[in-house]
Structure formats: C-alpha cells, structure tokens
Recover the amino acids of this structure.
C-alpha cells in the first residue's frame, strides 16, 4: 500500500499531540468544518413538506455532493505533493486530524477514573460526552457497558477504518471516509426528519465500514487473553446487533473481556430493548474499562506496526 507510511505518521502524530484545545478554539477541527457543511445541506435540501421518495432522492444527491467536495480537494492536494519521504510525512501530517486515536483514549480514561474512585455523577457526566443514552439511568455497570461499547465501535470508526482507506487511497481515502462517517453521525438516523433524507448516507457508511468493523473485531479477539472465547462470541453474537457493523468489534470486545454488552437501554427517554452480546457473562465494572483500553492500545500498536512494515516492503 503506497500510503501506509503516511498513515503510520498520522497515528504517531495523533498519539503524541491529539488535537490541542488551543488549536480547536482557534480554528475548530476538520470534522466541525464538515459538520457545518452538512448542516447547511440539511437545512437547504431536507424539506418536511416533500414526500419521502423525493426526500430520499434529495438526500442521496446532497450526500454525494458533500462527499465529492472535500474528496476532490484532497485529490488535488495529493497530486501536488512531492515524491519520496517528504510526501509521506506531509500526507501523514495532513491526515493526522482525521484519526481519533488520542481523543478516544482520553474520553474513555475520563470515564474510568471517576468511576473507579466511586464518583458515579462524575462518570455519568463524562460518559454523556461519548454516548447518546440517558446517563441519569446508568449505574456502574451501565456506565462501564456504554463506555466499552463506545470504545469498541469507535476503534473501528475512528482509527481502523480511516487508516485502512487512507493506506489504500491516500488523502482522498481518509478524507472521503471521514466525510461519509460524519454524514452518517449527523443525518443517518431513523428519525422523522432523517429516515428518508439520510438513507443514502447510512447505507454508504455501512458499506465503507463493512471490512474495517470485522477487521477490528478480529484484532480485538486475537490480541486478547481469551482469543477462542472472543472469536466465538463475535461469530455467534455480532449479527444480533442492530448495526450490521458495530456488532463485530463490540461482540469481540465482550468475549475478550468476559462481560456482556449491549442489552436494554434508554435513549432520550425512550426504552430500547436491544439484545445482549455475550448474554451469559457478568456485567462490566470500572476495571473492565481499563482492560478494554489495554486491548485498544495493543490493537493500535499492531496496526501501526503493520503500516510500517508495508511502508518498507
């Protein structure tokens, strides 16, 4: 893969720096820039007075346009890059903001610390920043479960998938993926406003995450201390999840840690009776978040090592 070295650089820079708060306050972040573009598209093209078929068509066209704009810009930038290691380093630095390695680790640590010290309210406040379910209804097991599920799913969406597409296609790959993923997170929900308009965004996101989600689950399983249990849980339970992709890393993580994940929860005051992953296992505790983070670090290290090997191959 021609751009493997650039993705290794992106991982390294993000691991060291993250996205500094001062930089965010001054210029924002590429995902917030994409968010503003998507908000404008949604406001301009998604009309509640239109029939569902027309809203679906309008959403598909708008989605393709939003994906095309930053991707074409990334192609133009990549064409202008010089050859050799300077190209690798520059492409890696440009890709750096689109990798969520450090921020995911920091967000999970922010939940684990107060939960381990018995500060349930502090842990609820921290977990509310990374999940959509009602934090007031969560006890220790619920907070740990929500955190570990977020870690598993976002390892795929925030690290493995962008790096994979970036390694294959370079800047256009990682920019295109991040645009698709942001579209899905903003308009890909089955709500009255977005069920039709966001249909294309959700289906495209399913497509580009199909391989990364399964690869992430496999990484979790083989790097855990319980590879047979994790693989068995992933194969058995992944398809029970409401998402065709998220169930794979989540089920693998459940098996790897020996805990049960998913299950019933409350979203915005509404009860959702979701099926369990690894149903017969115990409920997770605060210490399991730390174990999940250890597994996450192992997966990232292996991913980085593979990228470096491919860069020199």
């Amino acid at each position: 893969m021609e751009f493997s070295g650039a993705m290794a650089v992106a991982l390294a820079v993000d691991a060291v720096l993250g996205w500094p708060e001062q930089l965010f306050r001054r210029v924002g972040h590429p995902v917030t820039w994409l968010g503003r573009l998507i908000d404008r598209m949604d406001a301009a093209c998604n009309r509640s007075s239109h029939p569902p078929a027309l809203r679906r068509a309008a959403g598909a066209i708008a989605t393709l346009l939003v994906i095309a704009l930053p991707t074409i810009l990334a192609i133009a930038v990549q064409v202008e890059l010089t050859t050799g290691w300077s190209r690798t380093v520059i492409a890696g630095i440009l890709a750096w903001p689109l990798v969520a390695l450090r921020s995911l680790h920091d967000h999970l640590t922010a939940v684990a610390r107060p939960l381990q010290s018995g500060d349930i309210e502090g842990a609820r406040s921290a977990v509310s920043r990374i999940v959509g379910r009602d934090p007031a209804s969560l006890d220790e097991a619920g907070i740990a479960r929500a955190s570990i599920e977020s870690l598993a799913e976002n390892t795929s969406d925030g690290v493995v998938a962008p790096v994979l597409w970036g390694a294959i296609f370079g800047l256009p790959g990682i920019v295109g993926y991040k645009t698709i993923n942001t579209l899905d997170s903003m308009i890909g929900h089955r709500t009255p406003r977005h069920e039709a308009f966001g249909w294309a965004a959700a289906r495209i996101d399913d497509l580009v995450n199909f391989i990364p989600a399964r690869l992430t689950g496999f990484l979790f399983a083989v790097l855990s201390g319980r590879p047979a249990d994790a693989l068995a849980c992933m194969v058995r339970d992944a398809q029970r999840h409401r998402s065709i992709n998220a169930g794979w890393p989540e089920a693998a993580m459940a098996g790897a840690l020996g805990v049960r994940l998913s299950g019933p929860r409350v979203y915005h005051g509404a009860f959702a009776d979701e099926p369990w992953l690894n149903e017969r296992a115990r409920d997770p505790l605060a210490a399991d978040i730390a174990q999940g983070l250890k597994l996450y670090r192992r997966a990232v290290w292996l991913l980085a090592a593979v990228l470096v090997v491919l860069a020199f191959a």
In short: The CA atoms of residues 191 and 198 lie 9 Å apart. Residues 4-303 form one domain. The chain is about 70% helix and 5% strand.
